[in-house]
Write a structure and sequence with these properties.
The chain is an alpha+beta fold. Helices cover about 45% and strands about 20% of the residues. It starts with a helix and ends with a strand. Keywords: Hydrolase, Membrane, Transmembrane, Transmembrane helix.
Length: about 325
């Protein structure tokens, strides 16, 4: 999820904690829990320091990695609870520990629910876990929290307010998960292709982005669940990964970082004035006609790397169109 949602959920958990009589009866404990849930709801993303120290490429590979793992869940909880406990007196450390744990746990869980995923099962596996049924920013989830905060200010009964809000949220999550599985089955039935189907949530319950990868082709489109339709927006023939510019560019460290946690990467090669530009574009993240999440490498004529970059790169629309139109077909509807 995005940072604003993690912050909102931190405050929401602090409100829910008032259901605990110990929290409701002790303002010091309530304040400590508030600090613990807000910071705990954001702690796993403190791996942003990797970007500052090691650069964007290393951050692209390791963001939501070790910091979202099983050991990190307990280390974040213990470290934050201990540090928060120090300046307070007459509070229950165990209560603080439990609510901080809940905040860290929910951060990691909600990150698994979206397309980017996490390595939450480390150290048992480094596989990226992603359930793909909640968008990175969900306006319904944010709206629920805003309503809760308003009611909190009016009624001063945050425990019961957020108890009912999180029941609604739980029902919403279950609904979204069920609809996402139905959308995949609909796409499989309509496309009738042998390949890998990956659903990508949008802010709508009934419109889902999708990528279908076969041995030779990528199909990118939308599943319209209510209309029972699959619309293929872009159709990309796979690039030969053995071509010299691709082979040489793939050795670049930024590209290797990018490929470590990217799926459905379409390769685009374009001749430039001084050599080649090679891109690996993650087709899961489409914004209208653009695919901004990529690794890009500039090569000289002798295939020496001039520069490279990875992450969210918004190229001028005209240049993006020039590169994409050579590798895609017109949209079709099943």
């Amino acid at each position: 999820m995005d940072t604003s949602t993690h912050i909102a959920m931190g405050f929401g958990l602090a409100g829910l904690s008032y259901l605990d009589p110990a929290v409701a009866a002790n303002p010091n404990l309530a304040n400590a829990v508030l600090i613990g849930t807000v910071i705990g709801s954001n702690a796993p993303d403190f791996d942003y320091i990797i970007k500052l120290l090691k650069g964007n490429g290393m951050y692209t590979e390791h963001h939501r990695g070790v910091s979202h793992s099983i050991p990190a869940l307990f280390l974040w909880t213990a470290a934050l609870s201990f540090l928060i406990y120090l300046p307070f007196s007459d509070i229950s450390f165990f209560t603080l520990l439990c609510w901080t744990f809940a905040a860290v746990f929910l951060h990691i869980a909600f990150d698994i629910f979206n397309s980017y995923g996490t390595q939450a099962a480390r150290p048992f596996t480094k596989k990226w876990l992603s359930l793909n049924f909640i968008p990175l920013f969900d306006p319904f989830i944010m709206a629920l929290h805003i309503i809760g905060f308003i009611l909190w200010m009016i009624t001063f009964s945050p425990g019961f307010i957020f108890f009912y809000i999180y029941i609604i949220l739980f029902i919403y999550l279950i609904t979204r998960f069920i609809l996402s599985r139905k959308a995949i089955r609909l796409a499989e039935r309509l496309a009738d292709l042998n390949g890998v189907y990956t659903i990508i949530p949008t802010q709508s319950l009934f419109h889902w982005d999708i990528v279908i990868e076969t041995d030779t082709v990528f199909f990118v489109g939308m599943v319209h669940y209510r209309q029972q339709k699959l619309k293929v927006i872009h159709h990309f023939e796979k690039m030969n990964a053995e071509e010299a510019p691709v082979l040489m560019a793939s050795k670049d460290q930024n590209v290797q970082h990018f490929l470590a946690n990217s799926d459905h990467t379409h390769i685009i090669v374009q001749r430039t004035e001084h050599g080649f530009e090679v891109r690996w574009v993650d087709l899961r993240f489409r914004f209208k006609e653009d695919y901004p999440y990529m690794a890009t490498v500039l090569l000289a004529d002798n295939y020496e790397v001039i520069s490279s970059h990875t992450g969210w790169i918004h190229k001028p629309k005209k240049k993006q169109e020039q590169m994409l139109k050579k590798t895609r077909s017109q949209s079709t509807t099943f």
